[in-house]
Amino acid sequence: MNWPATAPILLALNLGDLIFGPGPCHASPKPEKHACQVQRDRADCRHLKLAEIPTDLPGNITGLDVSHNRLGTISPVSLALYPGLVYLDLGFNSITKLEDSLCLTLGLLRTLIVQHNQVHKLTEKDLSHCLNLTELNLAGNRLMLQGDPFGALQSVTLLDLSKNDLKSARLGTNLQLPSLETLILSDNTISTIEKDAFNFLKNSSSLRVLNLSYQKALKTFQHGCLEPIAGIDELIMDGNKFSTGITSKLCKELSGTEIHSFSLQNVGLVTLAKTTFKGLGKNQITSLDLSHNGMTKIDNGSFQWLPVLEVLSLEQNNLKHLTKNTFQGLGNLTHLNLRKALSKTSSCPIIDDFSFQPLQALETLIMQNTVFRNISAYTFAGLISLRHLHLGSTRCASLERITDQTFVSLAASPLLTLNLSDTKISRLQPGAFNGLGNLTVLRLGFNLISQVLTGKEFQGLGQLQEIYLSNGNLKITLTPTSFASVPTLRTLLLGKVLIGTLEVDPSPFKPLSNISILDLSNNNIAKISRDLFDGLEHLKVLKLQHNNLVQAWTTFNPSGPIMFLKGLRNLVALEMDSNGLDEIPVEAFRGLPNLQELSLSGNVLKHFKDSVFDHLSSLRVLRLQKNQITSVRKEVFGPVLANLSQLVIDKNPFDCTCDSILWFASWLNKTNGSVASLKDEYICNTPLAYFNRSVLLFDPLFCKDMTPFQALYVLTSTAVLILMATSFLVRFQGWRIQFYWNVLINRTLGFSDTNSREGKVFKFDAYIIHAADDTNWVERCLLPLEDTHGYAFYQQERDAVPGDALLESIVNNLNMSRKIIFVVTEKLLQDPFCRQFTAQHALHQVIVNNRDSVVLVFLEDVQDHVLSTRLLLRRGMLRERCVVRWPVQRERVPAFHQSLRIALGTTNKVQ
Ligand SMILES: *[C@@H]1O[C@H](CO)[C@@H](O)[C@H](O)[C@H]1NC(C)=O
Ligand SMILES: *[C@@H]1O[C@H](CO)[C@@H](O)[C@H](O)[C@H]1NC(C)=O
Ligand SMILES: *[C@@H]1O[C@H](CO)[C@@H](O)[C@H](O)[C@H]1NC(C)=O
Ligand SMILES: *[C@@H]1O[C@H](CO)[C@@H](O)[C@H](O)[C@H]1NC(C)=O
Ligand SMILES: *[C@@H]1O[C@H](CO)[C@@H](O)[C@H](O)[C@H]1NC(C)=O
Ligand SMILES: *[C@@H]1O[C@H](CO)[C@@H](O)[C@H](O)[C@H]1NC(C)=O
Ligand SMILES: *[C@@H]1O[C@H](CO)[C@@H](O)[C@H](O)[C@H]1NC(C)=O
Ligand SMILES: *[C@@H]1O[C@H](CO)[C@@H](O)[C@H](O)[C@H]1NC(C)=O
Description:
- The two termini are about 60 Å apart.
- Among the domains are: about 50-190, Ribonuclease Inhibitor (Leucine-rich repeat, LRR (right-handed beta-alpha superhelix)), CATH 3.80.10; about 710-750; about 760-905, Rossmann fold (3-Layer(aba) Sandwich), CATH 3.40.50.
- The protein is about 20% helix and about 15% strand.
- It has a 27-stranded mixed β-sheet, with no helix packed on it. The protein has a five-stranded parallel β-sheet with strand order 45-44-46-47-48, sandwiched between helices. It has a two-stranded parallel ribbon with strand order 6-8.
- About 40% of the residues are buried.
- Helix 15 packs parallel to helix 17 (about 830-850).
- Strand 14 (about 235), helix 4 and strand 15 form a beta-alpha-beta unit.
- It is an alpha/beta fold.
- It is built from 19 helices and 48 strands.
- One 2-acetamido-2-deoxy-beta-D-glucopyranose binds near residues 107, 131 and 132.
């Protein structure tokens, strides 16, 4: 029944409005941050438009972030409230001066960040108490250093002075910063590194990193300028504008240092001459970054000075030609990054045969996004250590059709991974990867492969564990032998690449007994064979989303729903989103005891069979968003939700009535599990009162009171029905009831005229009812009996008290008369008043008082049926002696009188 469910809600809403006033707007706006957030011992006060350091934070905080505010000065008084501060971020404010009181107040401070402020003059005194400071960031100010401002910083390991418009690298004159490890001076306007510029760091034996990137016009390195910091490990010169000449001069200056890592990104080094790095010949450079240089040419032997180089990046250059001498001397190189290093401008770059031959230690070769003419039988020759080759998004004519010759040059490489994604491959020929016996990962996604996979394509890949074939523009057809040569496969991704049927028998996956991840998503598969996944006992992840499996599970299937999941005992995750599913067979998830994650979003599921999820004893994550679910019933979801840690069932048209949602709303309210976008996406669709409101706002109180409400409802409706029935009964059968009632009462209680009424003294012996036309007769023949026999009659015209209400007097006087005489004539029967009221009431008296009190005096002969229809009286109803006739003959008048006297004398008792 719908009424009891919705009515209390409507009622409640109105009540609520009455009591609390109309509810506020229900869309809750994003809470704006007004106060600092304190988490553990850190306070986050960013973006609060603060002009002062807040004074109301816990006194024991050790971290305070007041960046992105409007602080101008730092009051030591407010800082004194937080003496335990170890970390203080004052970045992005308007601070103009650092006070010495800061470090004095905060003796434990280790990290001080003052980046992007307006600190100008910095003196020795300002930081004189910062002995414990280990990290100082003053980037983005407009520092003017006076004296040795960093002289007191005994413990600082990181000093960032970038973006300060500093003209010189000389930060002081005295020896200082003994603990410094990293010095960042990038983005200043240093044009010359003077011979003695770094003298102040002579005693800083821990200095490892010097970052001098992005100087506006750094051109000159005075001889010996790097000697004071000869111990550095890493020099970063990115973004300067160096010619080949400046580079080789810098390399000469570096020759006396212990540098291992040298970064020359984006310095405009367009060509590498054989001698450019000659200066580094005595160094032990292991890492060189030459990316983003627009480099077009590398002279033969340019790298011969770097025999211990291990990592070389040539990313994003415009190289045209790699020869067998380009990498000469890089015998220790393990990692070569050529991403976007060869690009097509006018002509197609060429990689000569044996170009990589010197790279005998190379393990990783990244050639992603390069363009080159072709791959020959010797292109990769000599890469005897190569394990990873990345050719993704590379454009090379040889890759369009992979033949058994394409990768022969890799036969000697112990290659483990080969990435050929997005290389416009259209066909894999038999034996395409022959010789790559150690390959474990083969990526072939995003290609144009369109063919029937017979299995010969993967011949020789005896160790292969993963194939990525997903996202091809064209279509692949599987056969029973497609994967017969790669039985070791564990991961097979075939998303968005198959022709929409998998009714292959025997199943192409049958040889893959070790498979653990299988992706068949986005294939619009409509037909699936019952045995498709037979024997895949190790399958853990099965992706079937965006197919058309509604047909497989429909009960309308001639042979019943196809239970293709049977036997996947170790399945952990199953994705079946967007399959148009409108029903799930009750047995569908049987035999998946290890399933932890089930995704069924974006289907059209509405009703679930009661125990459909009951077998999923391990389920932790259930996704059902964007279906047609109106009701989350305990019978379906109770068991499965008990163990769930994540439920996603938003964007469904929930019906927020007690029947449909009460149980779920209560579950949501108290669950410890994570329910994503609970506040915004769990919205009621019906009933109208809850439309577009969060399920969380559903008020359970009104359902708790349902039982009394229902009882009340039954009670009231019954009462109304009874009332109606009674009133109808009374309306139409009331007289009968009353009659029987009287009879009953009189019978049982023994009331009778003789005992009660007869004992009563009546005022009149008879009440005379007659027609107006018969008045004469009454006056002449009846009333004289009063004198002769001592009767007292009531005759309306004579006895009515003027002024008395007519009807009332009739009733009263009838009541006070022992007998009622009807003077029956045709006239009486026609007299409407007599007939309708007086007669009726007389009869009523007869019935009510149970009196046998009527005497009929016939002046004329009247048909019995006329009498009964007009006066509702029958002669037969009365005793013989109560019916008298006025004789036509005069001599019989005394006899009439006698009869009348007998009639009037008759007892009224019913016999
Ligand atoms: C800091 O003090 C508050 C009380 O003011 C206390 O609840 C909190 O546990 C303290 N935190 C630490 C890290 O001592
Ligand atoms: C530096 O920290 C230590 C404790 O780690 C403290 O004893 C000392 O006073 C601090 N130094 C200054 C100058 O506050
Ligand atoms: C230089 O460092 C040594 C030890 O590393 C130290 O003994 C000496 O005092 C330092 N000199 C100065 C001027 O700080
Ligand atoms: C050098 O400093 C700049 C500016 O601080 C920074 O962006 C860059 O990452 C630093 N380079 C390295 C290699 O740390
Ligand atoms: C560089 O080496 C290649 C291959 O040995 C050779 O063909 C070419 O002439 C050399 N280029 C120069 C400028 O010596
Ligand atoms: C690799 O580096 C070592 C020094 O670490 C050197 O002796 C050796 O010759 C180098 N190997 C090659 C092939 O250059
Ligand atoms: C594959 O690796 C094994 C060692 O794991 C090695 O013996 C074998 O030669 C390698 N095969 C190829 C083709 O490099
Ligand atoms: C959720 O919990 C709160 C407080 O425990 C309670 O007031 C509210 O009625 C509950 N809502 C539902 C839908 O159970």
